[in-house]
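Onboarding guide, step 5: your first structure request.
Type a short instruction followed by the sequence, for example:

Predict the 3D structure of this protein.
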Amino acid sequence: MSSSKPFKEQTVLITGGSRGIGAAIAQRFASAQMNVVIHYLQSHEAANAVARQCIGSGANVLTVTADLRSKEQIERMREKLEHHGMVPDIIVNNAGISHYGLLSDASEEDWNMVMDINLKGTFLVTQQFLPNLISQKYGRIINVSSIWGLSGASCEVLYSTAKGGINAFTKALAKELAPSHVTVNAVAPGAVDTMMLSGFSDDEKTAMQQDIPAGRFGSPDEIASLVYFLALPESGYITGQIISPNGGWHT
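The system replies with structure tokens like these:
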């Protein structure tokens, strides 16, 4: 079932849209000259730079800041979007942080931070904008997960747990929203050439690439293309799926 609103007139909200995969997703939707909302926390200049690129593609763009750990700030974000007539038809829950280290060295604060931004933020943002999707009987929710949410990773237990939670959230919510013609899917990238790899040494990156059958890291643009595909009206029969573009690293 498709929306009565043409795809180009729909609005997409990308959380964590100021850099990396989030910025590439914003630019991909902007290339279709859609309404694009770029969320960020503190990276004001970076978000504005992405916004300028999107405007250059002919998109209608709004930047908005909110701490996704705070229900009150997300409510204010929703009010701002309503004021500007940019309530999202497509929600891309991309914002997230990583954590690298032994579980025995992780603090309770580390746990709370990773869970709050990656998992709680996805819950709060989705919940805040869900009533509109249900009432219009159409919508797309696309959660950016990780290969580690599927396979787990040594020294990334907190991050793997949070992303695994997003995968379960995706599958359960897809069943809940299917009668409302709202699809819910997750994209679980493998190693992608972004700042999230900055914590690895050159030797570690080389070893990682050698383990990937494709022999290279993915690009943010490749992930953005998959997100865009899942948002299309003709992708309405795809829901509850965890799709992992990873170069054959995990099958």
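Each response can be followed by summary notes, for example: The helical segments are 20-30, 44-56, 71-83, 108-136, 148-151, 157-177, 202-211, 220-231.
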